[in-house]
């Protein structure tokens, strides 16, 4: 007798369980969708969890206004496929209304401003659970993140006051005004995600595959040349076209690209398996300080 | 190309104090299995340098939050990942001090293997006993005892045998089924990933080989069919007009299409018409698969109910005896009321009696002390507002476990194992 699930099937089953638990325990869940591979995986798992019914909650995208154009195109196509409703929270709008002030200078990024736009969108929609594609292997502050992560009425995360999680029992009880962030793919690693996406033949944005793009180097990271980044004169001079791909997809101002020839998902798996740097190694936003991620999470970042 | 079809998932828990080499061992496993990335290694190297430490402190790889790095201790459960071509590993890394019993319990709740570290110079300590006891209380199927720092006792076989015997002298009192011993040096790498040339007298396997090969295929219960209904799937579309499916994760046994089943609490019987998934219909479903069951008859069934086999029922009742580990600063209240979460079911309960408090070092049952505070373990009798469908924790870790939730603060205040 052999009743053994392979590791991807077991991870899938765990994630589906968590997603269904959210639909059962909360009144107004929402799925945070960035357009990156982790949120594409999340949308795929949510479809599986409720099949043949549609995903019973909307998707929420926080548009920084500095997205790779390919991301938005892909987003709209995927939303169409899931049949779910899409809500867009706009950072540009928050800036225009004076809710937040745009950063200035060479390292200006709208990454921090996303938090305000996100919290506002959650409040406006009265969402009580926001599902995200965070994984514990991504960054050290996430290694202790719970599946069900409790946030106070200011949307903040208190690492000292998280509920213990035992077995597969998830406590989503809360007071009025509080909400939860839920991370169903907590236990997946970057390699698991790629292997699963390959196995499931999930369609992915072209940005993940090798393509030619104008790039320049800053602090050892390659950034895409675009109108949203103020370049220093020497950076301006160093812009050149290279064959690159993204390992994560975020705001153009802080998402590093990598020199790569990986043209298929199988190539990517080979590359990731042999990689010597974590995927967030290319994220300028994590490099601001040793505890950059922890500090942002406390304020209510994804 | 990586073979993803046959890779299995193994979860293990470690516990230990700051100086028994636990963090070094985990760092070693991650480093030697090439799961450490350059940028992570570089960050740790820089931190070590800033702290004025000699060499690279691999232990820093497993220290997460700012507060912890400042205090130099791990205060919570941290999850680590690494994989080899055979298996993917999830480590629940917990501190081993007595005030962290609750973290050890949390880490142990999902583990297939408990890894217990013993400093070869010190032998079996109170903390070793505590960890082994928690592993048995939480019914972790496999126990691997690593006798560490063998390099500091001249790789002595005599010392190894002495500690092994010492451990066995108390572990026979525990409910553990499978215990394995390995002499290692996490610092030098002996018998962790590579076989040691320093201990020719040891004929067993390395730690990694053990973790890659220990049989976990029978860790789930495949005999007693239990399917707690988690979510009712009703598409209400033209294509699936009358579709009514019961989504959930198999908690025990094997369900097959055509099986005669009974629904609890109603007691109605019917047949499984279909086992549905996004990827198509299945012939059978077993733990821990998430599937959607469709039934032949249209009967009343909702979240919290359970689908079982006609001739194999779980216990059903409102009076339960539970071993509880307390998690909260506010002590357990005798006659206090709590919310109970059990499988997909919820009820309220009252604590009727504290039968005894367990001294987890001596295993002595204290019948007098009724004060159950944070990190204490006790046997209590509770009465629930409605019947729960459960098995003893020993029989099924999913249908035998529950949590206590404080009705005022909503915090998870206790973990219970049904006796």
Which features characterize this protein?
heterodimer, A: 302 residues, alpha/beta, Rossmann fold, 2 domains, 6-stranded mixed sheet, 9 helices, 34% helix, 16% strand, globular, B: 419 residues, alpha+beta, Elongation Factor Tu (Ef-tu), domain 3, 7-stranded antiparallel sheet
Structurally, the number of domains of chain B stands at: 3
Silhouette of chain B: globular
Major interchain interface with per-chain residue totals: A-B, 67 and 79 residues
CATH architecture of the largest domain in chain B: 3-Layer(aba) Sandwich
Total number of distinct structural domains of chain A:
2
The gross shape of chain A turns out to be: globular
The ordered H/E elements of chain A are: HEHEHEHHEEEHEEHEEHH
Q: How do the SSEs of chain B run, as a string of H and E? A: EHHHEEHEHEHEHEEEEEEEEEEEEEEEE
Q: CATH class of the largest domain in chain B, please?
A: Alpha Beta
Structural overview:
The complex is a heterodimer of chains A (302) and B (419). Chain A has helices spanning 7-25, 37-50, 69-82, 91-96, 111-124, 190-200, 233-238, 265-274, 292-299, and strands at residues 29-32, 59-63, 86-90, 129-131, 148-151, 179-182, 211-218, 221-224, 240-246, 256-259. Chain A is an alpha/beta fold and 302 residues long. Chain A has 2 domains: 7-192 and 291-299, Rossmann fold; 205-287, no CATH class. In chain A, strands 3-2-1-4-6-5 form a 6-stranded mixed sheet, with helices on both faces. Chain A is globular. Chain B has 419 residues and is an alpha+beta fold. In chain B, helix 4 (101-108) packs across helix 5 (126-137). Chain B has helices spanning 22-32, 38-50, 66-71, 101-108, 126-137, 157-171, 207-213, and strands at residues 8-16, 78-83, 87-95, 113-119, 142-148, 178-183, 226-228, 231-233, 245-249, 254-256, 260-264, 269-276, 284-286, 290-295, 306-309, 315-326, 337-342, 345-358, 365-366, 377-390, 401-405, 412-418. In chain B, 17% of the residues lie in helices and 34% in strands. Chain B folds into 3 domains: 8-213, P-loop containing nucleotide triphosphate hydrolases (Rossmann fold); 226-309, Elongation Factor Tu (Ef-tu), domain 3 (Beta Barrel); 315-418, Translation factors (Elongation Factor Tu (Ef-tu), domain 3). The radius of gyration of chain B is 24 Å and the shape is globular. In chain B, the strands form 4 sheets. Chain B has a 7-stranded antiparallel sheet with strand order 7-15-11-12-14-9-8, with no helix packed on it. A 6-stranded mixed sheet of chain B has the order 2-3-1-4-5-6, sandwiched between helices. A 6-stranded antiparallel beta barrel of chain B has the order 16-20-18-17-21-22. Chain B is built from 7 helices and 22 strands. Chains A and B meet through helix 1, helix 2, helix 6 and helix 8 of A and helix 2, strand 2, strand 3, helix 4 and strand 9 of B.
């Amino acid at each position: 007798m052999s009743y053994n699930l392979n590791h991807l099937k077991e991870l899938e089953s765990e994630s589906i369980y968590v997603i269904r638990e959210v639909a059962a325990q909360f009144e107004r869940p929402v799925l945070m969708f960035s357009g990156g591979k982790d949120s594409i995986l999340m949308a795929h798992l949510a479809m599986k969890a409720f099949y043949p019914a549609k995903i019973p909650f909307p998707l929420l995208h926080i548009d920084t206004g500095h997205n790779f154009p390919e991301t938005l195109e892909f987003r709209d196509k995927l939303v169409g496929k899931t049949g779910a409703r899409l809500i867009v929270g706009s950072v540009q709008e928050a800036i225009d209304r004076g809710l937040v002030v745009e950063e200035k200078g060479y390292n200006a990024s709208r990454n921090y401003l996303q938090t305000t736009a996100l919290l506002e969108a959650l409040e406006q929609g009265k969402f009580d659970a926001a599902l995200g594609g965070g994984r514990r292997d991504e960054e050290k502050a996430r290694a202790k993140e719970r599946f069900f992560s409790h946030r106070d009425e200011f949307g903040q995360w208190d690492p000292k006051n998280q509920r213990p999680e035992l077995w597969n029992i998830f406590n989503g009880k809360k007071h009025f005004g509080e909400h939860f962030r839920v991370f169903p793919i907590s236990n997946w690693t970057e390699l698991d995600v790629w292997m699963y996406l390959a196995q499931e033949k999930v369609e992915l944005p072209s940005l993940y595959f090798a393509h030619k793009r104008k790039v320049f180097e800053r602090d050892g990271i390659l950034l895409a040349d675009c109108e949203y980044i103020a370049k220093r004169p020497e950076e301006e001079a160093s812009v050149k076209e290279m064959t690159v791909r993204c390992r994560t997809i975020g705001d153009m101002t802080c998402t590093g690209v990598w020199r790569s020839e990986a043209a298929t998902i199988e190539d990517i798996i080979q590359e990731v398996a042999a990689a010597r740097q974590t995927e967030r190694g290319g994220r300028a936003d994590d490099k601001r300080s040793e505890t950059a991620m922890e500090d942002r999470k406390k304020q209510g970042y994804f | 190309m990586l073979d993803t079809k046959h890779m299995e998932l193994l979860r293990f828990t470690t516990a230990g104090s700051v100086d028994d080499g636990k963090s070094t061992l985990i760092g070693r496993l991650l480093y030697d299995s090439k799961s450490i990335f350059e940028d992570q290694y570089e960050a740790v190297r820089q931190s070590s340098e800033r702290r004025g430490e000699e060499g690279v402190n691999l232990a820093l790889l497993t220290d997460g939050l700012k507060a912890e790095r400042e205090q130099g201790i791990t205060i919570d459960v941290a999850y680590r990942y690494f994989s080899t071509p055979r298996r993917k590993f999830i480590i629940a890394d917990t501190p081993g001090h007595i005030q962290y019993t609750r973290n050890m319990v949390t880490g142990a709740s999902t583990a297939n293997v408990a890894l217990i570290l013993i400093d070869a110079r010190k032998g079996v300590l109170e903390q070793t006993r505590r960890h082994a006891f928690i592993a048995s209380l939480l019914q972790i199927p496999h126990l691997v005892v690593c006798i560490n720092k063998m390099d500091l006792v001249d790789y002595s076989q005599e010392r190894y045998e002495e500690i092994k015997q010492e451990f066995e002298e108390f572990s026979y009192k525990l409910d553990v089924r499978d215990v394995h011993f390995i002499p290692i040096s996490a610092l030098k790498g002996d018998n962790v990933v590579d076989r040691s040339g320093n201990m020719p007298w040891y004929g067993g396997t390395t730690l990694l080989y053990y973790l890659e090969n220990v049989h976990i295929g029978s860790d789930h219960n495949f005999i007693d069919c239990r399917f707690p209904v988690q979510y009712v799937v009703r598409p209400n579309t033209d294509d699936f007009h009358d579709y009514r499916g019961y989504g959930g994760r198999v908690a025990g046994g094997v369900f097959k299409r055509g099986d005669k089943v009974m629904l609890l609490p109603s007691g109605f019987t019917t047949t499984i018409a279909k086992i549905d998934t996004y990827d198509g219909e299945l012939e059978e479903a077993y733990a821990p698969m998430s599937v959607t069951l469709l039934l032949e008859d249209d009967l009343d069934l909702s979240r919290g109910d359970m689908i079982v086999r006609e001739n194999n029922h779980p216990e059903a009742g409102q009076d339960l005896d539970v071993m509880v580990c307390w998690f909260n600063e506010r002590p357990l209240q005798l006659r206090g009321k709590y919310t109970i979460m059990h499988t997909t079911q919820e009820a309220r309960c009252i604590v009727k009696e504290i039968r005894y408090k367990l001294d987890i070092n001596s295993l002595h049952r204290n019948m007098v002390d009724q004060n159950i505070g944070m990190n204490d373990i006790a046997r209590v009798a509770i009465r629930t507002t409605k019947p729960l469908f459960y098995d003893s924790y020993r029989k099924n870790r999913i249908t035998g476990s529950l949590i206590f939730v404080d009705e005022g603060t909503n915090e998870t205040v206790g973990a219970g194992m049904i006796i």
